[in-house]
Amino acid sequence: MNRILYRVVLPATFVVMMVTFFSTVIFINPSPSFAASETKKAPEATRTTAAEYAEAQIKQLQASLKITKAQESSWNDLTALMRENAKDVDALRKERVATRGTLNAVERMKFHSEMSESRLNQLKKFIPVFETFYNSLSDAQKKSTDEIFSTGKYRKTKRK
Questions:
Q1: Mean pLDDT across the stretch 133-149?
Q2: CA 96, CA 116: separation in Å to the nearest integer?
Q3: Rounded Cα–Cα distance for residues 23 and 15 (Å)
Q4: Alpha helix (H) ranges present in the chain?
Q5: Alpha carbons 133 and 72: distance in angstroms, whole number
Q6: Is 126 exposed, middle or buried (0-12, 13-18, 19+ CB in 10 A)?
Q7: Among 116, 53, 42, 59, which residue's Cα sits nearest to residue 90?
Q8: 78, 67 in Cβ contact below 8 A?
Q9: Tens digits of per-residue pLDDT, 34-78?
C-alpha cells in the first residue's frame, strides 16, 4: 500500500500542484497598469476645514443648549470668535501645505511653535467670551454644557 502511495499518489499530487502553479503564472496579467488602472481610482479623501468644523460645532451646541433671546448677544459674540479662530487655523494650515517639503527641521519646529502660540492666543481670547456666555446660561444649560465639554457628546433630548 505504501509503495502505491509513493509511486502513484505523490507524483500525481506533484503534477497537479505544478500545473496549478504554471497556469496561475500564465494567466496572470503582469502589466502594472492592470493593478493601477485609472478606472478604479479610489475617491480622494476630503479634508474638513476648521471653518466647516466650527460651523458644525456651533449648530450642535445651539441645538443642544436651546439658546434663549436673552443669551443671544453673548452667543453671537462666542460664535463670531469661534468663526474667527477657525479662519486663523485654516490660514495656518494653508501656509503649512504651501511650505510642506521645503522646511528643514529647525524651520519646521519654529512653524509648530507658531501654531502652538496661535492656538494659545485663541484660547486666551476664547475663555473670557465663553465665560460670559456660560454665566448667562440656566442651571440645566450649564449642566448640559459641562457634559458636552467633558465628554464631547451632544444630547438633544434628556434620557429617562
A1: 91
A2: 13
A3: 12
A4: 2-4, 10-27, 32-35, 50-65, 72-99, 105-135, 139-151
A5: 9
A6: middle
A7: 53
A8: no
A9: 555 555 555 555 678 889 999 999 998 888 889 999 999 999 999
Rounded to whole angstroms, the Cα distance separating 81 from 78 reads 5
CA distance 108 to 96: 9
User: What residue has cell string 509511486?
Assistant: 7
How far is the C-alpha of 129 from the C-alpha of 81, rounded, in Å? 8
Sequence-distant contacts of 62-70: CB under 8 A, at least 24 apart = 63/154, 63/156, 64/144, 64/148, 64/154, 64/155, 64/156, 65/137, 65/141, 65/144, 65/145, 66/141, 70/136
With contact defined as beta carbons under 8 Å apart, do 59 and 85 qualify?
Answer: no
Residue 101 zone, left/alpha/beta (φ > 0; ψ -120 to 50; rest)? left
Amino acid occupying residue 96: R
